Amino acid sequence: MNEELLWPLPPEFTTISQRFGEHPEWYVPYGLAGHEGWDLPCPIETPTFTTHDGWIDPSWRGEYGNSVRIYGEGFFTFHAHLVRTIGAYGQTVRAGQIIGWTGDTGVRDDGTPSCRGRHLHWGIKVDGVANAAFKDWLNPEPFLRRETMKTGWHLGNEGEITELDWRIMEILVPGCVVWMPG
What we know:
Elements: H1 24-27, E1 38-41, E2 47-49, E3 54-60, E4 66-71, E5 75-85, E6 92-93, E7 98-102, E8 119-126, H2 146-150, H3 163-172
Antiparallel strand pairs: 1-8, 2-7, 3-4, 3-6, 4-5, 5-7, 5-8
């Protein structure tokens, strides 16, 4: 993967309410070591954008609710808990296109809501990169475009890039410069 990703929401929504790997106690019952993506809080009906060129697979995915997978070359990103999506399976999209609107959809097998408030759940998987503790989901941070970070995105002092993130960045994103909290 040689692509840097755009931010998936309008620039006024840069808060990350739940980061990759957080709250393991919530995710162990699902076979995960912690949260498998980022949660980005925003009002219902906030537009969400493609973060890269590719093709889309919009569908209902149980606990993730209305969601869209955007497939690039050798990877896909995932936008979940949407109130609605646009586009059809296999449709080609360009980075920055609206592909849906945020919400709070999703339901567990027992019928209870799975979404903890209004937000976009955003994740990434890269072909051939194993991360068994998170069912191959990866921390999105190393894949974000540097300019995105200059517009106000930040992790805050508690953010941390793991050894796996560094390995992925060095191998799959040559030349990528990651902003580190200072």
